[in-house]
Write a structure and sequence with these properties.
The structure is a single chain. The relative contact order is 0.18. It is globular and about 50 Å long. Helices cover 82% and strands 0% of the residues. By secondary structure, it is an all-alpha fold. The protein contains eleven helices and no strands.
Length: 222
């Protein structure tokens, strides 16, 4: 069994909990309160900026030119495709680009992105790759699951979100990421495999917390 398959098998109950989270189900059936969706979109926009920075560091750490090219291509995909969806939602909500860029990260957002950036700067390439998988693979799985259940007819914005994350382009990015991670893990020593597994588990936990952050409209208390 490959590294990512083993990690997903280990976390199967957590993955199912994420799939059945009230926020995810609310997108799927169109009942999610729009204020929660706004909080998610603005916070996810901030998250994606730092996620793209981690990928850019992956270009520098990648072991070969093909892998460098994948990282560079994925940075472009996030900045100019995925984040375009976020910008279009915000424009619809009356949130201009200056206001969007001035958004204060929620505690969970700041904690998660700080963790990813620390791994990207200080960890091995394998750790970096493992820390990125729960996001890119998880969002495709969520999108695919929701698409299978049927698009919400009462909320076209959520239907658009589902189409984006279940789409072929997003699937290809996710599958390529998993393949790269598995190749790195196949060559890794015992100590690095432990570090990769820890990075995977930590990011996985943060993924659940990110849904919860949006559901709770999490903000700073002081």
């Amino acid at each position: 069994m490959s590294f990512c398959s083993e990690m997903e098998s280990e976390a199967s109950s957590q993955r199912e909990a994420m799939m059945e989270h009230s926020f995810v189900k609310g997108i799927g059936d169109g009942t999610l309160d729009i204020e929660r969706f706004k909080r998610f979109i603005t916070q996810d926009y901030l998250y994606l900026i730092d996620y793209a920075r981690c990928l850019a560091l992956g270009v520098a750490k990648a072991p070969d030119e093909d892998t460098m090219g994948w990282f560079a291509k994925t940075v472009d995909y996030i900045l100019n495709v995925e984040m375009d969806l976020h910008r279009s939602y915000c424009a619809e909500f009356g949130i201009g680009i200056e206001e969007l860029n001035a958004t204060v990260p929620a505690p969970t957002t700041l904690s998660y992105t700080s963790y990813l950036l620390r791994v990207a700067h200080n960890g091995s390439f394998g750790e970096l790759m493992a820390s990125l998988i729960p996001c890119v693979w998880g969002y495709w799985q969520v999108g695919e699951r929701l698409l299978e259940r049927g698009l919400p007819q009462n909320e076209p914005r959520y239907a658009e979100w589902i189409r984006m994350y279940s789409g072929a382009e997003n699937r290809d990015v996710a599958e390529d990421a998993v393949n790269i991670c598995d190749r790195v893990a196949a060559r890794a020593g015992a100590d690095e495999l432990v570090s990769m597994a820890d990075a995977y588990r930590t990011s996985f936990r943060y993924e659940y917390l990110f849904w919860q952050m949006a559901w709770d409209l999490e903000d700073w208390h002081v």
